[in-house]
Amino acid sequence: MKVTPHDSAVAHVTGDAEYIDDRPFVQGEVYVDVFYSPVSHGKITNLDTSEAMKVDGVIAIYTANDLKHNLWGSIFHDQPFLAEDKVQFVGEPIAIIASESKHNLIEAKQKINIEIETLKSTYTIEEAITTKNFIGPQRAIKKGEPEKALKDCPHKLKGVMKIAGQDHFYLESQASIAYPKEDGQIEIHASSQHPTEVQHLVAEALGLKQHQVVCVVKRMGGAFGGKESQAAPFSVFTALVAHKLNRPARLILTKDDDMIMTGKRNPFQNFYEVGFDEKGKILALKADLYSDGGAYADLSTAIMERAMLHLDNAYHIPNFSVQGLVCKTNTPPNTAFRGFGGPKGVVTIENIIEDIAKYLNKDSFEVRKINLYHSGDTTHYGQEIDDEVLPELFEKVEKSSHYHEWRKRVQKHNNENHSTIRGLSATAVKFGISFTTRFLNQGNALVNIHMDGTIQVSTGATEMGQGVNTKIAQIVSECFSIPINDIRVMPTSTEKNPNTSATAASSGSDINGQAALSAAQTLKENLAKTAYAVLNRPQELRGKAVAGAGTAPEIDISAISDIKDIVFKDGYIYQESIPNNKISFSDLILEAYLNRVPLTAQGFFRYPGIHYNKETGTGRPFFYFTNGVAATEVSIDKFTGEVKVLRTDIFMDLGRPINHGIDQGQVTGAFIQGQGWVTTENLFYKDGLLISHSPSTYKIPSIHDIPREFNCTLIENNLNQKNVRASKAVGEPPLLLGISVWTAVKDALHSKSQEVIPMSLPATQEQVLMLLEEYSK
Amino acid sequence: MRTSVFFTLNGKLIELKNEDVFLPLSDILRYQQRKTGTKVVCAEGDCGACTVMIANTINNNDLKFKAINSCILTGFLADGMHIVTVEGLNKDNSINEVQDSMVRNFGGQCGFCTPGFVMAITNMYEQKSKPSCQNIKNYLTGNLCRCTGYKPIIEAAQDVDENKHSKVSELYNWEELTKKIKEKTSSPLLIESQAQSVYAPLTIQEAVDYLASTQNVRIFSGATDLGVQINKGRKLESKKLSLHLIKELYEIKKENNKISFGAKVTLHQFQELIEKEVPKLNDFFHIFASPQIKNTATVVGNLANGSPIADSTPTLMSLDAELTLMGSQGKRVVPLKNFYKDYKKFDLLQDEIIYSVSFEIPNSNTKLGFYKVSQRRDLDISCVNAAFAFEMSQDIITNAKITYGGVGPTTKRLQTVEKSFQGLKIQDLAKEANIKLIEDNIAPISDVRGTKDFRIVVGKKLFEKFIQENWP
């Protein structure tokens, strides 16, 4: 197989790849920092910046009064950029400092005198439920007759699934540089998944028109959803300084400040009651989901919707009712994180199945299998399932991984006396692809062909490591059949691609790849006509020979209709019937230019046929589903509770991958990120302040934590013809397979217990050891 | 007296002066030398994005290139070093074999950690040929990646064709550069800027004399923790004493059964020293800190930091290690177990520094167990750690040495427990009353790394683990 590396791979390994803080300093550039609230809830009674202004190098300090408009929010406009009279979380921005020196910023922040009258804080979902402190409306989805069905069920289980948050821990912290331009214009370079939102919010906050602001995103050093909505305020801050001082302004958060100030994956508490038969077939499920939205709405209501839409995961449940509410607490506003609400819905049902298996004394694998969706089934929100591959994926695990022998080995180990206990579990993912808000599912692209036959492509997709630019380059290169090195995907810029959606919901390559393809196809059609005309002309009449002389008639492509015979192959264009008479792509481009054929085109794409009514909880929100299964074996140290992942086998359905290497990397990377969420990543707060705000206390997986044996197979699926090049989106879905580590831990604990064990997420070493103490008698 | 720091960067001599010598090396590289391939993420030596290769010319015997974290290396500590950044790996504008392997194996996604991984893999091939998968993981412990799940990086590290790879030690004319930098760094260093000063004498006597005559001095040796404190905006003493030019502090001695090593001996060198002598201790050091930290941080620094969760302290305490302290009036010896008076309070006078550490290699009748419990197994600060050394005569415990960390303000030997175990038959050790003794003698608190209850439970369990592992 021909390997196409990431388009920045060489720049990555040499260190040439430019991130925000790698941009050279320009004359007059100032450093920007954010002074934020030290308390989680209170009234600002006094803010005195005079001492801070005296610090050497400090030029200006700005507060809410300096903004023309101070409310933002991706869904509800409820959050101030800079707190005015009250603060609602530790880390809430209050003042912006501009300084000539980076090193005096800390001192300046310390010298800002703030007095805050502390108000009572809400820190947990429980407290918010008690005080009815909610954000947005309650949503509900219902199918069948869950109440009645529950009553009739032979077996029932009731419980609550407690799920903690997760920090994105993108390596490049939030970063932005703003350059002032003439006529009050601003050019922002940001580490953002959503340049359009940055552009719009900067314009609004500064009282500019949108055409006065350009936002450029070259690449991000990781994002994972953390730069979908939450990158924007930091760009507003640099833009404010640049605008006020008429000097370039740079803001690079430290990892500590980034982790303290920014929102996380929403914690959830999901209350459920499930009814099932003696085989483990789920007959009815009733659930109330509560998420911790933090202090402001951000994307939490949409995240809740996705959690509700994914509570079924891969399993067909005939009677189903789910309600969801977002709680307001005094913690940083929680936000998008790879999987959005999906993982919180999915881990809940996977946990339920693990418990059903324990209750019925069955292998959870069997319980999952009998509950799987099949083509023709309908989800709780009414979308019919087609081209279902989940049963095939389970069969792969069963056969290729020799699941049953595997289970026997685990049982044998646990029956002998070892200092470790083992657990095995396989979980699935069926992830809906599309934004659940219909209008977001659109994108545009610009393809420019230059006269030497090389191409620049610009789309609204932002590159955060996921390889979207590489895939787009591949799509365009294949369209024209020219070398990939002749295609360059340019930095994302709002002046080339306006009104875009965030690169999110795993849809980046789908939407932007298809938009780029559509632009390329427009050009290709014209070029094919041009080629037809050129190839049927004698050499001496070709544009190259008569350029500028006006001695040959111009080619009129509008008069050409029959071009079916024209092929683009390996850099040449010819009529299939006359392969010897050919023209190189670069020569054709020159001919096209000389004959005034357009060499630039825009493309547009929208996912067709999707709709979802949030109020009734019905519709067809997803264009298609990305599916996968992972089986994981863990080992727990009886003495310390330490969890080791011994082996994971992943089988993933990505349709026909555009770039196998990139997709493999997305799968393994997402899995390990999911594993971190369910095991070691522990957010520890004290009075609303995140104490674990750096990698010395917040533990993402290290290279030693990955499964000792880590197998990842992309199955061949040619059924999915809906999407660009028959591929499927990959970004988020495999994260949810990390849940298999959590269920495997539970399986291990269950093997030593007489009863169903309530375990929360993450399964930290501490929780595991304490549960083992309590339940293994 | 010298008033400039000298190092070489990718084969070029660099001079640092004034306030600049107090900046982290990564800032100097990124913002003064425009070597922006070196990234900073955590600024505390926990992620490896800032990894560079160095060789230290001060300690003659060790002109070997190794990886370090540039973000927590204070500028003046680069004095006398050869430094190679990712930009210095390929001299002729083509990528090297490690880089090429990372490209063809999809080793980078967002790319922010990638230069650090390239340096860490380069470091591995500097020290090791044909690495196993476990070797690779050990060499890459200090590098975090949030995108790849590490699998493609491991594949890239395995796929390096060593015949095509050129080592850092072969990249430049090091002999000539070493000669050049040795000339520049042969005299003591004294830099006084507006706000702070650093003094680096050539002898230990000058160092302790300076301490005797000067108030509020902070000693810099490996300074991997001080580097973090500087980055996090904590104010340190403005006067700094650096030990890096004092050659005798780099010394390692092994006589009969006794090992002793100086204050500048790194964790890595210590590990090499004990690899064959005390294999269990070596295993323990594998999960303790990253290669980058181990190549910079010193054992003495770990002891002198006084953290109750320092990982070398319990091990050396259970091995009955002794500290030699040097003051302006001479040397004295203090057993490590008596060194800690309270949280970060020591039996150490103002003019004294820890000169060296010594301990006897345990004999074959001694059963050992070294443990740490942390949220993540590798490269994590301990929640609780423990070290056991039981001298045995057949199945009778003749001398029990039990040390715990993370269960009180200092690391401590549980001497009451030790006494009651003396003369005990091993078969009786696992009795509940004995295990309860551990609980009665530790007093942990709850914090970010674990609750009090967990620490008590796991404290007892570590003792049970020690019994199970040695007498299964």
Number of helices of chain A: 20
Q: Detail the poorly predicted runs of chain B.
A: none
Helix content of chain B: 25-40%
The two chains with the largest interface, and their residue counts, are: A-B, 84 and 83 residues
> What distance separates the N and C termini of chain A?
54 Å
Radius of gyration of chain B: 23 Å
Classify the oligomer: heterodimer
Structural class of chain A: alpha+beta
Lateral arrangement of strands in the main beta sheet of chain A: 3-7-1-14-11-12-13-22
- Biggest sheet descriptor of chain B: 5 strands, mixed
**Largest sheet strand order of chain B:** 2-1-5-3-4
Discrete helix count of chain B: 16
Strand composition percent of chain B = 15-25%
**How confident is the prediction overall: mean pLDDT of chain B?**
95
Shape of chain A: globular
Would you summarize the structure shown here?
The complex is a heterodimer of chains A (777) and B (472). Chain A is of the alpha+beta class and 777 residues long.
Features:
heterodimer, A: 777 residues, alpha+beta, 8-stranded mixed sheet, 5-stranded mixed sheet, 20 helices, 26% strand, globular, B: 472 residues
Description:
The complex is a heterodimer of chains A (777) and B (472). By secondary structure, chain A is an alpha+beta fold. Chain A is built from 20 helices and 33 strands. In chain A, the strands form 9 sheets. Chain A has an 8-stranded mixed β-sheet with strand order 3-7-1-14-11-12-13-22, with helices on both faces. In chain A, strands 9-17-16-15-10 form a 5-stranded mixed β-sheet, with helices on both faces. Chain A has a 4-stranded mixed β-sheet with strand order 18-29-30-33, sandwiched between helices. In chain A, helix 10 packs parallel to helix 19, helix 15 (508-535) crosses helix 17 (585-594) and helix 18 crosses helix 19 (739-751). Chain A is globular. Chain B contains 16 helices and 20 strands. Chain B has helices at 25-32, 97-104, 114-127, 133-139, 151-158, 174-184, 204-213, 224-231, 267-274, 279-286, 291-294, 299-305, 312-318, 415-421, 432-440, 452-470, and strands at residues 4-9, 12-17, 51-56, 66-69, 81-84, 189-192, 197-200, 217-220, 239-242, 252-255, 258-262, 322-327, 330-335, 340-342, 345-346, 353-360, 366-373, 384-393, 396-405, 412-413. In chain B, helix 2 crosses helix 5 (151-158), helix 9 (267-274) packs antiparallel against helix 10 and helix 15 (432-440) packs across helix 16 (452-470). The longest helix of chain B is centred in the C-terminal third of the chain and has 19 residues, at 452-470.
